[in-house]
Fold UDP-N-acetylglucosamine 1-carboxyvinyltransferase.
Amino acid sequence: MDRIRLVGGNELRGEIPISGAKNAALPLMIASLLTDEPLVLHNVPRLADVKQLERIMENHGVDIAVHGRRRGEEDVGQRMTFHAADIVDTTAPYDLVSKMRASFWVIGPLLARCHEARVSLPGGCAIGTRPVDLFLYGLKALGAEIDIDEGYVVAKAPKGGLVGATISFPKVSVGATHTILMAATLARGTTIIENAAQEPEITNVAECLVAMGAKISGIGTRTLTIEGVEKLHGATVEVIPDRIETGTFAMAAAMTGGDVLLKGARPGHLQSALDILAQTGVELTEEAEGIRVRRNGNGIRPVDVDTDPFPGFPTDLQAQFMALMTMSDGVSHIRETIFENRYMHVAELVRFGADIAVNGQLATITGKSQLKGAQVMATDLRASVSLVIAGLAAKGETVVNRIYHLDRGFERLEDKLSRCGAEIERVAG
Ligand code: UD1
């Protein structure tokens, strides 16, 4: 298994191009199941999760093409075409779905277009129980009949297809919002989704669906209204820049000190995280090309944070922010309100010498001026990267084991960091 070896202590200086967002690329790929015409996506990141979803899409009969690079596009993601001319199989099998939770979301488009779907209950990062009750509630409201059979959700639309309904989610769910939004585009009549997720990735998908001929209003708000249409058509859509990658590198620069331009980053997509970072004493400037992050010599102030659905502080940046707080000048608190088991990085951060106490949802971090390099283990996607950025600021050598989690969600991580002066390499085997 590959490892990452790094020696901490170097400031980060230079430019980091931000990749396309994994959490937008995956549902955009899934949206291609809604039409028999090609959907062209620009700026798709080269990630293990994208590859895994490609396998699932191919199993449904989707033709996938990756287009070659164009001049002047060195730092741009892949241009890909997804063409679901004929869906040959409406089953998403366990061995494919269990590796990545988002693949469960195919249930929405399959049910809407083919009127049936048989999708394995999902797997993904082990960061909590992550049930699918909200998905099933929404699909049932659209008229679907649902059975659970040998670990599969078996869903059937009524004769003539799904029917529009008002769906009021008791809890905000990104995945359930994507799924019901996609399903409703081809339902008969009007669907209203109340308490919808407002994440920028939802907006990216909603705008893609509109480009495909869907009728959606309220995009970017808590209430989405969808008027079903008979058919969707092909479109060309760009994947938004990854706000979690942006926030991760911003925190890395905050920890190491230095001056980094995050190229292509959109401040509005992570304003809450930028506001919190500014409170820690980091200097952030919006430039035409992206966001500049600077910390020159001054200490890191402790700041308390609760994770929340967008526009709140993202749970996907919680581990990275905790790494930063281990170096603050005092005591800070983090409350994880989205997932019940998302503190697996704590035991690993403690190996760097950090002082962190967890009590239920609440973590108390007592800052230290200097972390020391350590052997650590990646446990989930975002936790893994918190170990990398802790290692960049720690004294001496760090080895991060089991980094396959990182490859699921971070494109060319070592390359991007080493170009800014970090001493970091991948060790094979
Ligand atoms: C998505 C993101 C993930 C991020 C998370 C929260 C992708 C591919 N993944 O995951 O990176 O951490 O949003 O911002 O976009 N829940 C239920 N019942 C359900 C569905 C969810 O109780 O049927 C709960 C979950 O257990 C969790 C909360 O709702 O406590 C939020 O989860 P959700 O927004 O659905 O996360 P994902 O869509 O899986």
User: Anything to note?
Assistant: The domain at 22-238 is CATH 3.65.10.10 (UDP-n-acetylglucosamine1-carboxyvinyl-transferase; Chain).
